[in-house]
Amino acid sequence: MKAEEMSCLEGNELVDEQFRLEVNMLPVVNYALQQNGVPIIRSICVVNNSSKKLEDVELQISAEQELCLPLSKHIEYIPAQSTFEIDDLSLTLNGELLAGLTEKLMGTLRVTLVSNEKLLCAEESEITALAYDQWHGSAFYPELLCAFVTPNHPEIVKITARAAELLGQWTGDPSLDAYQSEDVNRVLKQAAAVYGALQEQNIVYSVPPASFEVIGQRVCLCDAVMQQKMGTCLDLTLLYASALEAIGLHPLLVLKKGHIFAGVWLEELSFSEPVQDDASLVTKRLAEGIHEIAVVECTALVAGRNFSFDQACSAAEHQMSGEDAVEYIIDVNRSRMSGIRPIPMRVYTEGEWHIERPELDARDLTQAPKAISGTLEIEEQQETPATRKMHWERKLLDLGLRNTLINLRLSKTLIPILTSSLDELENALSDGEDFSILPRPAEWHISGDLSFEALHKLEDFSAVVQSEFKNHRLRAVYTEAELEKTIKNLYRSAKTSLEENGANTLYLALGLLRWYENPRSTKARYAPIILIPIEMVRKSAAQGYVIRLRDDDPQMNITMLEKLRQDFQITVSGLDPLPQDEHGIDTRRVFTIMRKAVMGQRNWDVLESAYLGIFSFSQFIMWNDIRNRSEDLAKKQNCPQFDGRKAGVGRLRNGTRRPCAGG
Description:
Helices cover 29% and strands 25% of the residues. With 663 residues, the chain is an alpha+beta fold. The protein folds into four domains: 3-131, Immunoglobulins (Immunoglobulin-like, Sandwich); 135-342, no CATH class; 388-626, no CATH class; 629-658, no CATH class. The strands form eight sheets. Strands 20-22-21-25-24-23-27 form a seven-stranded mixed beta barrel, surrounded by four helices. Strands 2-8-7-4-5 form a five-stranded mixed β-sheet. Strand 13 and strand 14 (259-265) form a beta hairpin. Helix 4 crosses helix 5, helix 4 (154-171) packs across helix 7 and helix 11 runs antiparallel to helix 18. The longest helix has 22 residues, at 480-501.
C-alpha cells in the first residue's frame, strides 16, 4: 500500500463513507486456538451503499506484531446498494510467535478494501494474543479447554503406572483395560486408582483468580503441577482428565462459575455435541439404576483433605444441582472427534521457548495392511426371454426422469443421513434397533451447495459418525431448524399416506447408482438402489423422532433395473429377490452386483450413502401385484373370455367387462 493511502487510513477523513467493512472476529487468540484451526475471522461484510457497482476490488488483511500472515482476497463484483459477505477466510496465525509467548501481547488487525490502488474503506480491531499456557475462557469455544488435557505428557506416565499398581492391589489385576471388560465397576476402580495415584503426590491447593469466564486463566500444565506440587481447581481437573484419557477412559470437564471439576463415562459413550449446558444430562446418568457417569471433585485429592474417592464423587454430585448451576459440560472424547488436539510440550533451550515434537509411538506408525477378503464372485446369468406378462409389467413402470426412483434430487423432502457403513446400518435396523435423527454438529461448516457426491465423502466426519452410530444416533446434514421442518413434514406425509391409503411411503434409500443418459452427457443422474421401509416415531418434543424398520419387505429398485435393461441393454441378475445374510439384506453383495453390472459404463458408479424420504410406489405396487400373482394370470390367459389386455379384468367378446375368477 502506498504512503498516501496509509495516511488516508490513519486520518480516515478521506475514506469514502459510502463503503463500510463489518468484521466479525475473535478478540483473543492463543497457541491452542491456532493449533486446532479455529477461524479467527468468522466473516467480513463489505457494505456498498453507493449507487455504483464495485468490480475487481481487493480485501486485504494484516496485523501488528506479525500475529498473522498477510492475506488478500479478490472480489470480482459487488452490486450497488448491497452487502457482500465473505465467510471462508483462512487467516494463518503465526504459530511460532504464539508458542513463545510468556505474557499476553496486544495488537491490531487491519482490514482494508482497495480498488485500483485506491483505498475505499478500512476497519481496525484490537486483538490480544495470550500466553502459550493461557486458556482464553469459556466465553467462546469452551471446548478448546480440551487442548490443555494432555494425555501424552511424560509426567502422566508416572501417574498411570502407579494407578496400575493400586488397581492390582484392589482387584488382583493391574490391567488398565479401559472399557474392554464392559463392567462399570471395573471402570470406576480405574478412575479411583488414578485419583489415588494423584492423591499420593501431596499437591497443595492454590486459589484461582476471581473469574475465568471472560479473561481466561493461566494453566499449570502437567509438569508444572507435578514439580511445584501446587495447583488450582483448573490445573487439578486437567491433570486428572489427562490421566483418565491416557488409560483410555472418556473424561468430562464440568464448569461452574469460578470452579471446575471432572467427570468420567463409565460406559464407552459420549454426548452428541462437544459442549452441553444441561446439567440434567449428567445428573440423570448419575442416578441409581443408570450409572453411566461418575463425577469427581478434584480439589478433594490435595494435601490435608484426606477425601476418599467415594467422598470426592459425593462432593461433585452435590455441586451438580442447586442455585449455583453448571454452565458447561465439555466431553473430551467428543471434542477430540471434532478435531481438538492436545497442545504439544514446550521446552526452554538456548534462551528461547521451543515446541518439542514427541517421537512417534510404534502404535502411530503404519502396520502391515489388512488382508483383502470378502471378494464376491458373481455368476453371470442368461437373460430370460420376455414373456407377455413381463411386457405388461414393464408398461406399468415409469422410466422417465420425473420419477425419483430413476432421477433422485436433493430437496427438502429428503434427509441425507451420514453413515460410515451402510452394511452396519442395515444390519442394525434388521436386528430391530432404533435410531434417533439429529442435526449436524454445530462445529461442522458445510460450504457451498449440497451434492450427492459431497455427501458420499465423509473423511472429515467419519470419527464422529461412527461414535454417534454406536450411541444409536444418526446425523443428518441439516441444521437443527432445517431438520426440524423437514422431518416434521416427512412424519406427517407418511402418517397421512398410511391413514388414507394404507400404504407406507417412508423409506430409507441405501446406495445410489450414478448414471448418465448418454456417453456425451456431463450431468449425472442418481437412482436409489435399495429401499428399506421405515417407521418414524415421535418420542417427545425433547427427544425428537426415532426411526425403525417396518414389518414390510425391503425393495430392490426394480424401476431402475428396468431402465438399465430397456435403455442401456444392461441386465442385472441376482437382485430379485434381494440376497440375504444372517441379519437381513446382504447389502455388500447388492452393491458388488451393481458395480460389476456397470463396470463398462464411463463415470458410472455406486455411491454408498443413505437418504430418508418419501417414495411413491403406486405403479410399482401394481407391477408387484402382477408379478406375485403369476399363477392366477397364467390361468386367466387360458380363459376363453380373457384377451390379456387388462390384468385382473376379463372382457367379454361383445366388449362388456366383468371380473374373471380370482380377479
